[in-house]
Fold this protein.
Amino acid sequence: MNTITNPSVASGSGPGRFKVRSLVVASLLAVLAGCSLTPDYQQPVAPVPSTIGEARQGAPVADIAISLQGWRDVFIDPQLQGLIETALEHNRDLREAVLNVEAARSQYRIQRSTLLPTVGAYGEGGRQRTPGDLSPTGSTTTSGQYAAGVMASYELDFFGRLRGLSTEALESYLATEEARRSAHISLVSEVASAYLSWVVDSQLLELAQNTQATRERTVDLVERQYQVGVATQLDVSQAKGALHDARSRTAEFDRLVQQDINALQFLTGSSETLQLTAAPKDLGSVVKLADIPSALPSNVLLNRPDILAAEHTIRAANGSIGAARAAFFPRIVLTGSAGTASADLSNLFSSGTGAWSFFPRLDLPIFDFGNRQANLDLAEVRRDIRINQYERAIQTGFREVADALVARSRYVDQLEAQEDLVEEAERTHTLSSYRYETGIDSFLQVLDAQRTLFNAQQSLLATRAEQQLNLVQLYRSLGGGWEEGELLPAS
């Protein structure tokens, strides 16, 4: 059966043959236009165990997606919330991170525009006088030339060079956006940590002031007893020494409180003097984090903005590799213009003055003494460096979350023991004071009981602060605040 019905095609001549060639060429161009030398992204295997933390015996680790509360639900103290809002509006580090995002977005728009033709309008004109000895006619002539129209230029991205560069710019922009998110979370956490330091130092200052007042009364009591011959000069000297120690601690904590205020002033970035009301008495009213299992799947780390940023840098490096590979192949740039031209300005737009030009250009690299190969090698090495940075970011995140989880479970026992210690120290102090006043023990026992009680109370406050700071660290290490729109910076 003869399947050829068009004689012109069968004979290899005529318009049918031209159509076949056109279809072949068009198909080839379509295939080449879709060609890309950019490597496919392969997510590196996380170099950490599959589970973070300590699973309870017999309890499997649930494969859950942790989605932490927004910072307003975690940091519940109204004064702290106001400080965080001020910091998000005025902090210079966060503002710089936002500006970096804007710069990366603009860079991506610049690179993306190279994928499209550039079109522009032009208009030009001029007149020229040619002396007779230079004129072919031997006479002095004056001529003019005027033109107007549009021109366009377009690079056929057959091998994906421009697309590779565009991908690199896009992924760099996304990495910068994740860096801004990381800066946002870090700023919120730093403000909360500084606020907790101010709260606990304020409580320690109050404790030192109360201890100083107690020891002042003790000095008065011992001096009166010395005057009636009950106490000794050594007792008076020891009581005054304990008072001076309390005065020193009061000054120390007062200094720390002022430095905490300075730290908050710096973090908020406000030009107005920071005004704080009285510190809350209960540290538990400052931070409230939803219950999180003691063991988590390691894939929760993939939501951290620093790890997401590292992943985007790998994708950006792949785009750079694609562009470096495409540099080994020809570049085809099409440039053309269409308009009107005339020797007289008055006839510029008259009939028959149309003009056009078309200039395709092929750039074929031959010898460059290893320049393109070096660029490709450099792009591949940078990709390997970013893979290493990605793996290190996962390892860092794993350690931070693991430390926060194990600390959270241990602080419960530590606080219970510390509270028991304070109770016993208070009981010892009461008994030693009674035994001294009744003449059974020396004043040295009272001093020892005072120091023990004061140290135990300090340790209890410090442990409570550490427990709250651990919640802040857990919030930060898990990439907290994913659910809230406050990740968009205040401006």
User: Anything to note?
Assistant: The longest helix spans residues 161-227.
